[in-house]
Specification:
Strand 4 and strand 5 form a beta hairpin. By secondary structure, the chain is of the alpha+beta class. The chain is built from three helices and six strands.
Length: 129
């Protein structure tokens, strides 16, 4: 798939769904490993979490992940899935680490993959706190 094809797929997806706009997009068209990576802006924690889940609702074959930075200061949350046409996409953002927040069980530098339902549960529990 070419860069132009990946851009067209992403453009069509953004035109079809009312999604929070990414602040950066990386396209990697290379034989069978083409993919799109998009970073979401972090205006406020609730908006960040809502944006990530909004994107997840529009993808297929969705999984989620969390990675706590080695410094321990923040946790990067990601949603991995496929755009129409099968192009893989990874949407990610960061949240500040707190002892009782999202990814609290992760040691600095640790990562985990999870079903989307687990990410939703983390977000729901943090909103209630």
């Amino acid at each position: 798939m070419t860069t132009t094809q990946l851009l067209d797929i992403l453009r069509a997806h953004l035109a079809t769904f009312e999604l929070p706009q990414p602040c950066s997009v990386h396209l990697i068209p290379f034989l069978s490993t083409e993919n799109v990576t998009a970073q979401l802006a972090r205006p406020t924690p609730p908006q960040t979490r809502s944006a990530l889940l909004a994107w997840a609702e529009t993808l297929t074959e969705v999984t989620a992940g969390a990675w706590r930075l080695p410094s321990g200061e923040s946790v990067h949350l990601s949603v991995l899935g496929h755009l129409p046409g099968g192009a893989p996409i990874r949407i990610y953002t960061g949240v500040a680490f707190t002892e009782h927040g999202i990814g609290a069980e992760l040691a600095p530098g640790a990562s985990t993959t999870m079903p989307l339902a687990t990410l939703r549960q983390w977000i729901t529990e943090e909103v209630r706190s």
